Amino acid sequence: MSVKHYFEDGGAMSDALPRYRKRQAQIDAAEFIYESMQSHTPAVLEAPTGSGKTMAYLVPSFELNRRIIISTKTKQLMSQIAGKDIKSARKIFGKDKYVAVLKGRKNYFCHLRFFKLVYPHPGRYENVIQWYETVAREEIIEMPVGAFNMGEIENITTDSWMCPASKCEFYDICSFYRAKQNANDADIVITNHYLLMSDFALKAESEHASIFDFADHIIMDEAHSIPDIFPRFAGTELSLRSFLRVMNENRPVFDPREIEIAAGLLSGLLEDITERRYTSEIKERLLGYISFVNKAIGEKDVDDLKQMHKRLNDKAESVMGDSEGVRFAEVERGDITLQYIPFDASEKLREGLKNSCLSPVFISATLSVKGTFDYFLNETGYKEDEVSSKSLEPVFNMEEQGRLMVKDCDDAFYEELALKAKGSVLIICNSVSRMNRVTKLLKQIIPDRVFAQSEIDISDTEGLIDTFFVGCAVFREGMDFAHTGISYVVLDKLPFEYFEDIVLKERASSLKNKGLDPFKDYFLPRAVIYYRQAVGRLLRHEDDHGIWAVLDTRMETKSYGKYFRDVLNNVPKIDSIDDAVRFLEVTDEAD
Question: Which residues face 237 on adjacent strands?
Fold first, then answer.
C-alpha cells in the first residue's frame, strides 16, 4: 500500500490544487507517515520548510480513515489547517469527514460566570450584555477576539480549577463542554499544544481523566516546542490572585474585613517581589498570605467554594512542596504566579501519550541537532529503537537562493541596513530589552517602516512590504512572513538562552549532577534548533532569494560554531550590505 500516487503529476493533488507542484520531499514525508501510522509505530519526522508537511500528513490521515488528533502551536496555524488544508484534503478524497476544532477554555463563554458576575450589573457591562443577546441562541459560543478587556474576559470565561463541570446548572449548554463533545465525536480534531499537553498531564495521572477521547494517532505539528511546553503542565502553576478572586466573587459569604486583609497581604507581596525569585527565598512571606486565604475560604460551608478551595489548596501544596524540580515566583500584571516545573518530565509525557493514542507522529522543520534526534528523543522519553525517524533533505537550493553574512553586532550595521535594504527585513533578538533598543534605533532613521512584535499582528500584514519587523522568539518560530517580501533575516546574536534564568540554571545544575555537560547536552542543542527555526523564516517559495545576517562572530571563532555553520554549510558568504544589495538586484533581474 502507498499514498505516492496522490502526489504524482496528474494525480489527485494536481487535480484538486491549481498551483500544485510535485515535490519529492512531500512524497517522501507522506510515505513515511503513512507507513508509520499503518504499523502504529511512533514517528519522528524532520520536514524542512517548503516540503508541504501539512498535506503530507493529511493525505495518510484521510486514506487510513482513522480517528486523528492534529495539534499545532498557534491559533493561526490551527485556523490555516481547518480553514484551508482540510478543505483541500476533502476535495482530493471526496470524503466529508467530521472535523472539529477545540481550543482552551478561555476561548469559550461561561454561562455560570456571566449570570453571576455580569448580568446583574447592566450599567457596568452594557457592551458584554448586548453582545450576549446577539449570540445567546448559538449552540457553542466562542469569545470574540479583541472585543472585551481582560477584566470582562475573566468574568465571562473560566478555567479548570474554577469550573464545577457536571455539577454546574448550565452544564447541558456549556460552550466548552459542547465544543469538547463535538471534538470527541469527530473523525479529525484540530487543537493546540497547550490544551493537548494539559490532557497528557491529566492522563499521566489517570487513564480515566481526559479532555480528548482516545485516538488512533496524534500528529504534533511544530513538535520541536513540545519539550518546552509539556514540563509546565507536568508541574503546577498557581496564581495568588486566584484566592482573592474567589473571595471577591463570593462577597456575601465573607466578612469584608477578610477580603480587605487578603488584598493587603497580596499588595504587600507585590511591593516586595518585583522580579522572578526562588520560592524558597520568600517562602515565609508567601505562606503568610496562603495560610490566611486558605483558612478564610476553607471555613465557609458552601459547596462551590469547597470544590474551588480543594483545587487551590492542592495546587498550593504542590508548588510549595519538595519534589525534584524548580520552584519560583513570577510577577506579571498585578499578580504573583507560583510555578513548579519538574526537571525531567519525559516519563510523564510517555505515560500521557500511552493513554491518549496508539501511536504519535512528531513533525517539525527542526528536530535534529548534530545530525541526530538524540536531544528530542531524550526530552520526550523515547529511545532510538522505539521510533521510526527520518530527516528529509532541504527543499530549496540555499546555495543559489541565499547568501550568508557574519559580522559583529553594532549600531552602524543597523543604520546602514535601514538606508540600503530593499524588501522587508526580519530582525530576531534574544530579549525584549534588546528588541526595544533595536526598534528605537531604527525608528530614528525610518520611523514609518519599523514594527516591533508588540505593535503588530503578523496575520494582518498583507501589503506590508519594505518593512522592518523586530521581534524575539515569537517571530522566530512558526511565523510566516512570506507575503511581506522578506529579503533579509537578521539574527542579532546566536540564540542562546539566558544561562542565569532560574529555570534554566536549575535544569543545568540537575544535568551536571547526573554527569552531563549542561552546555553541550542542553544549551547548545536548544540554541541550534532555535537558529534553524530563525533561518527557516527566509526562503518560503522556490523563487525566493535573500540574505542571512548573523551578528555574532562566535559562529566562526568558537569550536561550537561548527554546529551553526553546518546549517548553512554551502551557502556562499558575503562581507557587506553592499554585497547583499548587489546579490538581490541580480536575482531580481533574473526573475
Answer: 339
